């Protein structure tokens, strides 16, 4: 009986250790957004709505898949980036990756790749 109780306590302690978050959660009211943060939030909402508000995939929604790629492509181009695409064939259909390179910054020698599916 003691062995079983000890095993249960150890299992609970191990589970708590695995899911516990470090630090302390924020409490209280959040600070008001600045004008730049408000604009950023509006732009993010617009982009998420344009890309993720409807199903888009190769198998039964290829038109929506291309529309999402075009939105990302035009958004990056509108920000002044040189946009390139990598086209390839999957299941007898052409799909593409959209890419833009951001140079400079605090860590100019690093390469950061951002992808989404």
Class per helix and strand makeup: alpha+beta
Label the overall shape. extended
Number of helices, counting only DSSP H or I runs of 4 residues or more: 3
Helix content: 40-55%
Largest sheet: 2 strands, antiparallel
Low-confidence stretches: none
Strand order of the largest sheet: 1-2
Q: Beta-sheet strand percentage?
A: 5-15%
Report what the structure shows.
It is built from three helices and two strands; from the N terminus they run αααββ. 45% of the residues lie in helices and 14% in strands. The longest helix is centred in the N-terminal third of the chain and has 18 residues, at 2-19. It has a domain at 36-103. A hairpin with a 2-residue loop joins strand 1 (83-90) and strand 2. A two-stranded antiparallel sheet has the order 1-2. The N and C termini lie far apart (51 Å). With 117 residues, it is of the alpha+beta class.
Q: What is shown here, in short?
A:
This protein has 117 residues and is of the alpha+beta class. 45% of the residues lie in helices and 14% in strands.
């Amino acid at each position: 009986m003691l062995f079983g109780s000890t095993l249960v306590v150890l299992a609970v302690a191990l589970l708590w250790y695995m899911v516990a978050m470090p630090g302390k959660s924020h409490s209280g009211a959040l600070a008001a957004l600045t004008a730049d943060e408000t604009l950023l939030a509006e732009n993010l909402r617009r982009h998420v709505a344009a890309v993720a508000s409807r199903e888009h995939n190769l198998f039964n929604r290829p038109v929506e898949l291309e529309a999402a790629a075009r939105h990302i492509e035009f958004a990056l181009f509108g920000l002044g980036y040189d946009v390139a695409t990598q086209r390839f064939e999957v299941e007898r259909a052409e799909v593409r990756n959209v890419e833009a390179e951001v140079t400079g910054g605090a860590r100019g020698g690093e390469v950061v790749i951002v992808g989404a599916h």
